[in-house]
Amino acid sequence: MATNKTTQHEFIDMDQHTSSNQSTNAKLFKYWQTRTIIATMIGYAVFYFVRKNFSFAIPGLTAEYGITKTSFGIIMTLVTIIYGISRFLNGLIADKMNARYHMSIGLFLCAIANFAFGWGSDLSTIFTGETGGPMFTNTMVLIFGVILIINNLIQGSGFPPVARLLTHWIPQNELATKMSIWNTSHSIGAALVAILAGYIMGSMGTNMSNNPEVINAIAANLKIDLNDAEKMKGVIESASHYSAWKWCFWIPAAIALVGSIGLFMGLRDTPSSVGLPELHKTYKKGKESSAEFKEFIKKSVYRNKWIWILGIANFFVYVVRFAVLDWGPTFLKEAHGMTLSNAGWTVAIFEIFGILGMLAAGWVTDRFLEGKAHRTSLYCMVGVAIFMTIFLYLPDNTPSWLMIFVLAMCGFFIYGPQALIGIAAANQATNRAAATANGLTGLFGYASGLVSGVGVGFMVDTLSKTNPESAWDYVFMMMIGMAIICVFIFALMWKAKAHGYDELETKEV
Questions:
Q1: Residues 410 and 387: beta-carbon distance below 8 Å
Q2: pLDDT in tens, 276-307
Q3: Can you tell me the distance from the alpha carbon of 322 to that of 42, in angstroms, rounded to the nearest whole number?
Q4: Is the pLDDT of residue 11 over 50?
Q5: What is the DSSP string of 206-257?
Q6: What sign has the CA pseudo-torsion 153, 159, 162, 164?
């Protein structure tokens, strides 16, 4: 009898001990989940500091060295393609590499590349033995092009490790909501670097406004008549902050350097790396062979029709998104007579509404659609098509606030799919192949630059020769058509499950 009582007490103690361990693990898992989300949000935002700062240095480089817009345009188009390829290649690497090292080392190397940007003129002098002239400028453009390519090849180490990390730390039924919150890091990083770089270019550098040679050189580079008092104000401003562009690279580089150390200290790879159980049994016990992993990648990504549909849809989503972001200010000025200042604020509001739309799309996906992000994306693209059509047919005397609101609603709906496609790809491929799947869909997304960049520019230039008043209308019709096509592409996934864990999860052996 005493033995039975003892055994009973032992079972009660074991149950209490097990319950206590589960509670401790749950709290510890929550801590590491939150820490991972915050660390990667900050880290990815810092990636933007050493990626989007170049465009703010362009006015200074043009003023001081006369580098043409065509040269910058060629470089930036090449960079977009390189970044897309980098996202794909780093996706392949991320599924096999410790995300802590991948992301922190990547940011560290981007910081080094940006320090090199700041010494671009010095490197050109070393190679040419000159401090000015065509040879010096052409060499400098070449140096910038090479460093930009290297920088953007490394920049692809930003998102793929995150795609892998978050699928290990966030259950699939919470992924849309929490990853949508994480996706705000894009806009946060872009906004912060804009503020920082704007401040640097407007307050730093050497004051050379009293140097006639510098004034004359800048005026010549900008093709401004010295007798044009209004335009000479811009020349004086450029001379007042001579070489500020260097700090536009050095200061963000220093921030990225600190950020890379923070990522290394703050991140851990998977739950098992800190002694916690994995969310999904997608890893076999023991060492997995390279052949086994490659076969899994083929099955879950390259032979997965849902991933290819998401990739094609991503192309159309990015065409619409980038067309508005890249050409928005020019379109609003030329087609609606809006000042560049107001046009800039309109695009900023487009971004803000995009963040709200992103958060709303994630919440709706988990709350009402059982994690089926592809269905939310379909509804969002219908919204994009509707509001773009409304915007196209707004009369010329439409109040500015209404025009801005309608365009902002386009941003509200387009940013939902922009975030959810990555989430859907991660869920369909499972956390074991999430980075590769996102690399593939990202490649489609950045290939859209051929349409939204060069394509739109060529379309406007061509149509403006024959029908200048309606050239931009045809561009909007094209984007509406893209949005409608995208709706039908997402419709192909209507019957797809929310995730692929049921089919692709492997048994422990």
A1: yes
A2: 888 766 555 445 667 888 888 899 999 999 99
A3: 24
A4: no
A5: B--TT-HHHHHHHHHHTT--TT-HHHHHHHHHHHHTBTHHHHHHHHHHHHHH
A6: negative
- Spatial distance between the Cα atoms of 226 and 172, rounded to a whole number of angstroms: 63
Q: Let me know: does 437 contact 302? Beta carbons within 8 Å.
A: no
Q: What is the CA radius of gyration of the chain?
A: 26
pLDDT, tens digit, 9 for 90 and up, residues 347-365: 778 878 988 999 999 999 9
The tokens 């992103």 sit on which residue?
Answer: 358
Of 226-235, 290-299, 323-332, 487-496, which range is least confident?
Answer: 323-332
| CA–CA distance, 424 with 311 (Å, rounded to integer) | 11
Q: Where are the alpha helices (DSSP H) in 337-396?
A: 340-368, 373-392
pTM, rounded to two decimals = 0.78
Domains of the chain (ranges, CATH numbers): 35-206+241-271 (1.20.1250.20), 290-501 (1.20.1250.20)
With CA atoms as reference, report the closest residue to 267 among 34, 2, 28: 34
Percent composition of the chain: helix, strand, coil (DSSP 3-state, to 5): 80, 0, 20
